[in-house]
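re: that chain from earlier
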Amino acid sequence: MAYWWVCQNKTGKEEHQGSYLWAPHRNKKGQTFFHWENMDLVRPGDLIFSYIGKTITAVATAETDAYDSPRPFSSSAGQVWEREGRRIDVTYDPIDPPIHIDALIDDLLPLMPEKYAPLNATRREGNVGYLYVLPDTAADVLLRTLEVGGGSPRPSRRGIKLEPRLVKDIEAIWKARRTPPGGRGSGKASSGITRRSGRSKAIGDAAEKVVKDWLEEHLPTEQRQTVIWVAETGRKPGWDIEYEADGRRIAVEVKGTTGAFFSNVEVTANEWLAAETERDAYRLCLVTHCESANPRLHWVEDPWGERLAGRLEAVPMVWRLDRIQPSV
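^ sequence. v structure.
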């Protein structure tokens, strides 16, 4: 997951009402700019801080990649742009009250990148432009402020009852990658670029709690009494939660995202070895919208078997090199 800062002074009202971001491909002189081209780098699940009038008014979750779309604005402010552009569908979570940037400017400015920063150190306000990369450290400052100030856009963390929903169709939350004609897979590994944030653990913990609570509510009585959140104890057997069913242990590895979809799922070597060893007693539970009041769950049974059947592809992302002391 990555973080972004979007300046919406002129078009924020329409973008919030329509649940989207939009930027032109070029201006009337045929020029383009990095803050428009950044639209192509956003991925589903990324968080975008909406900046309007020197305040952060909402946190948006990207639901789609950028796609070509004509100018959507009806107001005169939006007519200054060329007609063709990029659009990203998002879900806005309003912040009430908004965060005024003056209160955080001294904390945020030292965390800004040297080039293409969303904040201007001289003017002590936002730079002119649309969409900027926001460093993880700066996003953490904003997110901590939301939690402390009670303006968090995550209602589930403010005492509202969670209402998770079980999703049976995997396509609804995990999009399949198209394979090339004539064979399985792409024939090459991923670039190895991971999009982690400083909140990865918090997101993982939130997803695990959703699954633990769901199991304790939906399992038969004798099984729900055996549920153990092993990750909370510090153990790392290759799964996060376990319970007993029909005399055997069921191992559950949880993967969570704040967005609506997974593009892929990362597992550790330890988790993948456990999937191979445990086989049909091993489950992957995928949780989307895991920090909202309405998370969605999908269960993948025996992911190792799914790989053998050709429905999953496992690609090594990182190899660890250790020096070996020769035997005497």
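The radius of gyration is 22 Å.
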